[in-house]
């Protein structure tokens, strides 16, 4: 079983079809189709159900996907480990909540590049729930998420305890205003809804935005209120038009840290990155 075939199979699954996979792999459709067909012949089973232009995983394909991701991840680890024997090199795939990325990642990644100049960094921002799923699926080497994260296959290393505050525009009453939140999967979302209920807010509806500045910008003009790390609000361009109010500790104090797979031998760069962020958080 060739790694190229497994990489092609993974691309078809992730991109949702042959054409999209061929674009991602920078090859023609016929090559992708041929690799999948050879893989099916080698395994003696159908991996996809074809429907129009799209594909859907067959039961055998779902089984293969888990093993394929593990094998491809092992290949990446092997390459990185061999390179680390000489020069620290390879690819590091990092996930982060948008708020954590805004506060901590830029200076930490800058120092990481200075100490590991040959390291290729890939960063993805998403909700905590999605990032944890990507770590489990071997799509990310680590992710910085809101905790606690309890899973037998994962390790969660707490780096900082973030303080969330209620944020609203001066002169507005949050009790009478809707929530403004990140989409489903955001760790702060559940806490904001819990606070809304605990405080007896009259408004039960919520507006969803995909960006940090979009949320704070709408809050600053009185469209609603949100729950956000105190440091994020203080550093925002909208800070002068926002008020912050402390919330109960069980809602406001959020352990935040790095999640990775227990089964992996972590690259040394991961420990370096975690230490850089821990040091930076302590300094503040």
From TrEMBL:
Keywords: DNA-binding, Transcription, Transcription regulation. It holds the Pfam family LysR_substrate. InterPro entries: LysR_HTH_N (IPR000847), LysR_subst-bd (IPR005119), WH-like_DNA-bd_sf (IPR036388), WH_DNA-bd_sf (IPR036390). Gene3D superfamilies: Periplasmic binding protein-like II, Winged helix-like DNA-binding domain superfamily/Winged helix DNA-binding domain. GO terms for molecular function: DNA-binding transcription factor activity; transcription cis-regulatory region binding. The keyword Membrane does not apply. It comes from the Bacteria. Residues 1-58 form the HTH lysR-type domain. Belongs to the LysR transcriptional regulatory family. This is Transcriptional regulator. It comes from Thauera humireducens.
């Amino acid at each position: 079983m060739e790694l190229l075939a497994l990489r092609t199979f993974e691309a078809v699954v992730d991109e949702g079809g042959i054409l999209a996979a061929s674009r991602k792999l920078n090859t023609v459709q016929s090559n992708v189709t041929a690799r999948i067909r050879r893989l099916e012949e080698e395994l003696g089973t159908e991996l996809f159900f074809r429907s129009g232009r799209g594909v859907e995983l067959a039961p055998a394909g779902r089984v293969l996907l888990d093993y394929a991701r593990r094998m491809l991840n092992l290949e990446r680890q092997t390459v990185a480990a061999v390179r680390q024997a000489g020069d620290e090199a390879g690819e590091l795939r990092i996930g982060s909540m948008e708020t954590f990325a805004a506060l901590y990642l830029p200076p930490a990644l800058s120092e990481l590049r200075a100490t590991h100049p040959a390291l290729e960094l890939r960063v993805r921002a998403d909700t905590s729930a999605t990032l944890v799923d990507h770590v489990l699926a071997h799509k990310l080497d680590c992710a910085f998420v809101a905790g606690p994260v309890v899973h037998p296959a994962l390790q969660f290393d707490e780096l900082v305890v973030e303080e969330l505050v209620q944020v609203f525009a001066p002169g507005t009453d949050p009790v009478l205003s809707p929530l403004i939140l990140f989409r489903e999967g955001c760790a702060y979302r559940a806490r904001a809804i819990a606070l809304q209920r605990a405080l007896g807010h009259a408004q039960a509806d919520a507006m969803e935005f995909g960006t940090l500045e979009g949320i704070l910008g709408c809050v600053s003009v009185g469209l609603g209120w949100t729950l956000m790390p105190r440091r994020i609000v203080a550093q925002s361009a909208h800070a002068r038009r926002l008020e912050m109010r402390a919330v109960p500790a069980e809602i406001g104090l959020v352990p935040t840290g790095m999640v990775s797979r227990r089964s992996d031998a972590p690259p040394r760069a991961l420990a370096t990155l975690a230490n850089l962020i821990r040091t930076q958080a302590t300094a503040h």
